Amino acid sequence: MTNTMRQIKNLAKLELCNLYGINVFRFTKQQGKKRKYACLFVLWCLLLAMTAFYLGNLSYGLIVLGLEEVVPAYLLMISSTMIFVFGMLKAGSMIFRREGYDVLCALPLPKGVIAVARLFRMYVENGLLTLAVLLPGIAVYAWNARKGVGAAFYVIIVLDIFAAPLIPMSAAVLAGAIVTGISSRMRHKSLAASGLSVLMVLAILYGTSRMAALEGNLDAEMLRDLSAMVMGMLEKIYPPAVWLGIAAVRGDLWMGLFGIFVSVAVFAAVSAGVVLCFANICEHLSGSFATHRYQLGELKAGSVAEALIRREFRRYFSSSVYVTNTVIGPVMGCIFAGTVFVMGADAVEQLLPAGLNTEMLIPFVLAGAFCMMTTTAVSVSMEGKNWWLVKSLPLSVKQVLDAKIGMNLLLILPFYAVSEVLLMFALKPDGRELLWLALVPLVMIVFSCVYGITVNLHFPVLQWENEVSVVKQSASSMLGGLGGFVAAILCALGAVKAGSAYSDLYNGGICAGIVILTAGLYWSNNRFDLCGKIG
Amino acid sequence: MLKIEHLTKHYKGSKKGITDLSLHIAPGDLYAFIGHNGAGKTTTLKCVTGIQDFDAGSIQICGIDLTKDPVLCKQQFAYIPDNPDIYEYLTGIQYLNFTADVFKIGAAKRAERIRTYGDLFEITASLGDLISSYSHGMKQKLALLAALVHEPRLLILDEPFVGLDPKASVLLKDVMRGICAKGGAIFFSTHVLDVAEKLCNKVAIIKDGALVTAGDMETVLKQGQSLESVFMEVAGDDKYDAAN
């Protein structure tokens, strides 16, 4: 083994040893911490079981429809999309993270080795994701088509699991490197990175919707062959998924090897690019603009609440991962309202199944978008090593938590106002409809902010290596961030069941119930022992 | 000023902690708190500042019970940890304004104090820069400035001289003496025994979570001994005792 390979192995081991907190769980002597990790493990298992159930059913559904040939390609498409979307928002912070960079740079190893080890960690995480997506669906496929499945199928599927993450991960790393590279040269790095990331997500959404629009122009002959149509659609969006999937189904080893070769080549090219520009980007990122030219002028005094909310906003906008992950929901809410405004309420109603009307669903859809990922769900964790400050200052629990909720509400407020105005013009609601249109999202937004705090108080992570692990991978971001969104979906399903005849009663009941629940959570949060239970 | 009675704090699954620790710090006291690594100094300071809860005992600051009214208690003191992890996403002046707002200090008073101490510690020109661009020593100075901006009656410091340049160390000692002269009190942990001996009027030595000696410096340093030799005698290990 060459020296460089040995160094890569050592660093990769360091990167992976605490993956998902395994190392802390193994060696911590705090029983409470162990219990929390055990709880988290159970939650992950539940999530995996739900995913397996969903993907198994999806595969079975495709088989029943006579689309069995599509199953592996479809699953590969799902895993690739997940890797790309999740990876794009975190790649920059993962690969070019500042934490530990100085210490590693002082060691006798080339800087490129650090980049390779970080890429390897990302690859392992994405490999596990691919495995979780592919395994249940492929198992269902193999069981149903067991007579036609030979040894070549299993060999290619195993190779697929290793190769599938490479291209979407490369695309995510490339996007992350571009965003980080550009923003690293700006004074307000985090703000620039957040803006660029949001723009990139919107561009991808627009691009994929354009691709879907092209599908509408397919000729009638192709529509008759549903399997070919789905395969055609997948090939248009992401051809490697089709190459690797078809190769497995047909036992075509050469096609499989071609797909793997393309994946490895793309990954190698992107990795080489990352290694080349790694040191440059990291140096720009760790550089700071210090002018040493400050002159003390007149100072303004403000209230404690103002000071705390201002600090929350500054914390929020200092982290591009935090911003991009939490601002997408409100932006989507505005886009949704804008779409309804442009298309008109009638056109939207035609897209819904018979019996459903926009008036019933739109308040819940809007609420779902705004509650997609609240900032409060990770706001305590984001304090990290600064948590001692909040605890040592003369602040009550209520003051600290109110500032976090206040910041989240103030952040969503402009998006909410714009969406409401657009929908008011689009739907032209009467007084009663307007009440629900405004009240339902508002009540759910407040609930999701308070609920986010509740979850984060019970699942805080104050010792973290980088913000990605808090914003994207913590139990709190999973349970707290999505809580409001899930509640909105459940309420929307309830609204469908209730029907338009009882919509006023239903909406009133839901709003009253959520207000009571929110008040209960708020009361309990403000009695939480911050010093004793956190940190 | 600070009354610690029978303080006990143990971490679950760990032997570390403090047992039945009692200390009284009076106005005007400059109190050094010394002990080897892991003896329980930082744990004590964290309990006193309300950062950590404790299993038994009581802590009173200016007559206010910490567990009964923590917010009022925290208004009486300022705390500076050994590694001042302060909000790196703020500029120095933003951090100082934040602290002054929390302690409800008026605009004119805060400006005057920031100017006085900022100039004293030569940090005023850097207050417009992000804290992330500060060196360890500058962060230490900023934390000190934030502590002094509300003129606390009690200043609690954990290893305050680590990372400070020689000039700042001298200035800090002067500031500490000044606070005590005005009737305030200082309680700080340190490994620099020489500084503790010359600067403080009282000292406490902690070993394995228990107080081994405490009181006036003159009483502790009996028969012209140095603090170093007293420390090695009461808190040193057996190997040292055998060698001497």
Quick gist of this model?
Chain A has 535 residues and is mainly alpha-helical.
Largest sheet of chain A: none
The fraction of residues assigned to DSSP E strands of chain A is: under 5%
Spatial sequence of strands, sheet with the most strands of chain B: 6-7-8-3-9-10
Written as H for each helix and E for each strand, in order along the chain, the element string of chain B is: EEEHEEHEHHHEHEHEEHHH
Shape verdict of chain A: globular
Q: Which range best describes the helical content of chain A: under 10%, 10-25%, 25-40%, 40-55%, 55-70% or over 70%?
A: over 70%
Low-confidence stretches of chain B: none
Work out the number of β strands of chain B: 10
CATH hierarchy class name of the largest domain in chain B: Alpha Beta
End-to-end separation of chain B in angstroms reads 39 Å
CA distance, first residue to last residue of chain A: 43 Å
Number of helices of chain A: 24
- Average pLDDT of chain A, to the nearest integer? 84
Please provide the ordered H/E string of secondary-structure elements of chain A. HHHHHHHHHHHHHHHHHHHHHHHH
Second-tier CATH architecture of the largest domain in chain B: 3-Layer(aba) Sandwich
Largest sheet of chain B: 6 strands, mixed
Number of domains of chain B: 2
Main structural class of chain A: mainly alpha
What is the beta-strand fraction of chain B?
A: 15-25%
* Radius of gyration computed on alpha carbons of chain A: 25 Å
